[in-house]
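Re: the 116-residue chain
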Amino acid sequence: MGSLDFGYFFFTKQVVTNAAREGARAGTMIDPVKGSTVAMSAAGQAAIEYMANNGVACPGGGSGCVFVSNPTVVVAGAPSIPAIDVVIQYDFKGLTGFAALALPKSVHSHALMRWQ
């Protein structure tokens, strides 16, 4: 039973990591002229949809575990660059109940991509 939960934890971790990456990518595909609000919305929606399509949906439709911000990346010797930052904090629920004994209670992922 513990092996099932252990495998499901790593599956969940992979889905959450990919969702953060896909969300950040979707946000950076929006033209910066349209504004950061549109890009942040697209990033959040893409991350939520990726998770839902892979069976690891956030409670409440995603608003409770997907957070998107619009930071500025500062590169040494270069002008600052706008970016999209997607953070996902997913509360892990095991399949059998054995997860609570050895596995973390949440899965966290963070993806930061700059607009090109």
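The first strand starts at residue 66 and ends at 69.
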